[in-house]
Prior knowledge:
The protein is α+β, with helices and mostly antiparallel strands. The chain folds into three domains: 4-64, CATH 2.40.50.140; 66-139, Orthogonal Bundle (DNA polymerase, domain 1); 171-216, Helicase, Ruva Protein, domain 3 (Orthogonal Bundle). Strands 1-2-3-5-4 form a five-stranded mixed beta barrel. α3 crosses α9, α8 (171-181) packs antiparallel against α9 and α8 (171-181) crosses α10. 37% of the residues are buried. The longest helix is centred in the middle third of the chain and has 21 residues, at 83-103. It is built from ten helices and five strands, in the order βββαββααααααααα. 44% of the residues lie in helices and 18% in strands.
Amino acid sequence: xxxxxxxxxxxxxxxxVMIDVRGVGYIVYVSARTAQSLPxxxxxxxxxxxxxxxxxxxxxxxxxxxxxxxxxRLLTSVQGIGAKASLAILGTLGPEGLGRAIALGDWAAVKxxxxxGPKLAQRVVMELKDKAPTVMAMGGALTVDAAPSDxxxxxxxxxxxxxxxxxxxxxxxxxxxxxxxxxxxPAEAAAAVAEASENPEATDTAKLIRAALRLxxxxx
Length: 220
């Protein structure tokens, strides 16, 4: 199983990229969102990958974080969602947006992805609503970027020095974990956190938790 590739970009397209790894060019299919964020031809990149194996076909699909890859795994477990449909959904919503849509039962957001009809979008929400909270809670540990490995990459001509990216903070995952530790059901907590994350004042974990708790408080 090929789980990660690190090399130099030889070619970029709207739905795939060719990465040179020690003289071997790997074609990796990616979402539109990932394609737009990759560096230009000649620069180093790395992607987590999922290998699709069929009798007459081998295809690699690439993701910038383990969190996105885990959502891809869940999406493709839904009947009618193949790898290309999964990339379309992730390219439209992103992993965080997808988690929020499923937690809120917002199948219309899923339907906004190219090639996804209403029945399929509803199936995604229904089949993943109980699994989504677990992945959302793991988000903080799964958002590690697939940073290029200097040991595997031949330097490109006149390489540019790029500053290391600052670590990402996943307030949603931390808040969800806190609420489930307080005894709320995972699905109930996920829906509250997803709705609370739309509040512009929820700028850190503590504020997000307070906003979610207000939503979960019994209504008079």
